[in-house]
Every structure is written in C-alpha cells, then in structure tokens.
Design goal:
Its EC number is 2.1.1.107. Keywords: Methyltransferase, Porphyrin biosynthesis, S-adenosyl-L-methionine, Transferase. This is uroporphyrinogen-III C-methyltransferase. By secondary structure, the protein is α/β, with parallel strands linked by helices. It folds into 2 domains: about 5-140, Tetrapyrrole methylase, N-terminal domain (Cobalt-precorrin-4 Transmethylase, domain 1, 3-Layer(aba) Sandwich), CATH 3.40.1010.10; about 140-280, Methyltransferase, Cobalt-precorrin-4 Transmethylase, Domain 2. The protein has 9 helices and 10 strands. The strands form 2 sheets. Strands 3-2-4-1-5 form a 5-stranded parallel β-sheet, sandwiched between helices. A 5-stranded mixed β-sheet has the order 6-7-10-8-9, with helices on both faces. Helix 1 (about 5-10) packs across helix 4 and helix 4 (about 85-100) crosses helix 5. It starts with a helix and ends in a 26-residue tail after the last helix. S-adenosylmethionine binds near residues 81 and 240. S-adenosylmethionine binds near residues 29 and 185.
Length: about 290
C-alpha cells in the first residue's frame, strides 16, 4: 500500500460524510469509449481511485489528448484479478475520502457492475452513509469482440448471449452455436472451458475467438474451434487480459480463416499461427 493510501485509510472514519463517491465505468481502455458523463465526473473529482486494467489507459489517453484532470490519482489496481490493494481496503478508502469531504471517482475498467465488484463498493458506501452514484461504462464483454468484428447477436446466427467468467461452472450452460458464450478472465481455464463446451450441443467444431488486450498496443485476435483453441493459445502464448467468444458469430470476424468461415459442421483444420491473418495484430494493420 502506498504511503498516500495509508494516510487516507488512517484518516478519521467517524466524521460525517460531506463528499461523495461516483463509480465510473472506464470502458475497455480507449479514452474515446469513456462516456461524456464519466468524463464530467473525472473533471469534477478531487480524487480518482483507479484500477489498472482499462482505467489507467483511459487516464493516459485523456492526458495525451490534452485533457487536464486536477484530481489526485490513487492507483489501487494491478493486473486483472490481482488487486494490489484488497477489496476491503478499497471500500474503506472510498468511505474515508468521502468523509474527508472529497468528490471521489472510483474509475473501474469496463462497466463497474460486470464482474467488477462495483455492487460491493456501492453497498459499502451506502452502509457508511456516503452518497454514491454509478456511471455505467462500456463493458469489455461487448466492446472487445466488436473490435474483432464480432457482434454477439446476429440475425440467423445468434439470438442470445451469456457472459460468464472462466471460473464459473459452465457445465450447466445450455444452447448450441446460436447461443454465444463470452468468457471473461478465461485464459487460465481455457482448455477446460473448451472441452466442457464442446461436449454439449455446440460440438468441437464450434468457432472460438480470443481477443487479447482489446484496444491496447498488444491487441491480437486468434480464431479457432473448441477442439483447436487450447493448442493455438499455447502456441501463441495467449495472455490475459483477453475476451473469449464462442459461437457461430465468430465466423463474421474478418480475422476468421476460411477453414472456419466455410466449415458447416465439418472439423476445421488447426490454423497455424503463420496462417492467421497479419491483421490479427494491432501493430500491423487493423481491419
Ligand atoms: C475483472 S473482469 C472486469 C470486467 C469489466 N468490469 C468489464 O465490464 O469489462 C476483467 C476481465 O475483463 C476482460 N477485459 C477487460 N478489459 C479488456 C481488454 N481491454 N481486452 C481484453 N479483455 C479485457 C478480461 O477477460 C479480463 O480478465
């Protein structure tokens, strides 16, 4: 915990609240995908308590565009799922800062209420009598597939979608390829998830896309099938953060190799990393 943060937490927590907390969804990391309401809250803030994933790159992006934020920035995030500061300490910090009379923005990646523990932070503020509001953000579950040209629903291909984490029990997840599955935090458990989903109605030839570091400098798209994706991921050294999309909508992606877009039930060949389109890497050409 930084010295700054320690000082904040140690402040007198018994004083009445005069400040307030606004949870702001930062979106997937591109400053252009922050909402105007979120930007206004950042501009009005005294303190911004920021996560690393999504939030920091949005702050950097705003600075690069010449947006000057007067607020003190407290960094409480590390990598996805590994908070540098425990959740209880973040909750306590938000309450303490608000009780010090500060206008606090809690800047969180994506949307605060999608696997973001935003509900816990809201509850903690409410229990402490601190005024709190939420400005939704664009979740990575939708926006990261979009940058790879994948809509989660599409007439004739998919009428529903489910967002789960790689840690969830996905055995019970019904439906076929027309039911899109989006996995967040799914890299570590990818092989297991792929086997589980392939045993159901989707089958092993169901298309899968993995989008790493969406909107970031390391953006990369890998497309395969439930049978092939774990091997592809291992070969390419796929890393978190990444969004995994499972279902026929993946065939709409310009990154999908022909073997997958034309496969109609027949097992697709494993595309070698070399066979994947060069445009799969942001560092080269985008679609
Ligand atoms: C703890 S969850 C938070 C989700 C966030 N609240 C949201 O609405 O996007 C973190 C996971 O979101 C996904 N994620 C968030 N931003 C991403 C990005 N820019 N590129 C790829 N995946 C991302 C990854 O699956 C990551 O492991």
């Amino acid at each position: 915990m930084s010295a700054n943060l320690t000082a904040h937490v140690a402040a007198d927590a018994t004083r009445p609240s005069t400040g307030h907390v606004t949870l702001v969804g930062a979106g997937p990391g591109d400053a252009g995908l922050l909402t105007i309401k979120g930007l206004r809250a950042l501009e009005a803030a005294d303190v911004i308590v920021a996560d690393r994933l999504g939030a920091r790159s949005v702050l950097d992006g705003l600075a690069a565009e010449g947006v000057h934020l007067a607020a003190e920035i407290v960094d409480v995030g590390k990598l996805p799922g590994h908070h540098a500061v425990p959740q209880d300490a973040i909750n306590a910090l938000l309450v303490t800062l608000a009780r010090d009379g500060k206008r606090v923005v809690r800047l969180k990646g994506g949307d605060p209420f999608i696997f973001g523990r935003g509900g816990e932070e809201v509850a903690s503020c409410q229990e402490a009598g601190v005024a709190v509001e939420v400005v939704p953000g664009i979740t990575s579950a939708i926006s990261v597939p979009a940058i790879a040209g994948i809509p989660l629903t599409h007439r004739g291909l998919a009428t529903t979608f489910t967002v789960v984490t790689g840690h969830d029990q996905i055995q019970a997840l019904g439906g076929g390829r027309d039911h899109t599955v989006v996995l967040l935090m799914g890299v570590g458990t990818l092989a297991n998830s792929a086997i589980t989903l392939s045993r159901g109605e989707r089958g092993g030839t169901c298309p899968v896309a993995i989008i790493e570091d969406g909107y970031g400098s390391g953006q990369r798209v890998t497309v395969g099938t439930l049978d092939t994706i774990a091997l592809q991921a291992a070969r390419r050294g796929i890393r978190s953060p990444a969004v995994v999309v499972v279902g026929d909508v993946v065939t709409l992606s310009p990154y999908a190799p022909e073997a997958i877009t034309t496969a109609t039930g027949a097992p697709a060949a494993i595309p070698s990393p070399e066979a994947l389109p060069a445009s799969a890497d942001r560092k080269t050409t985008q679609p």
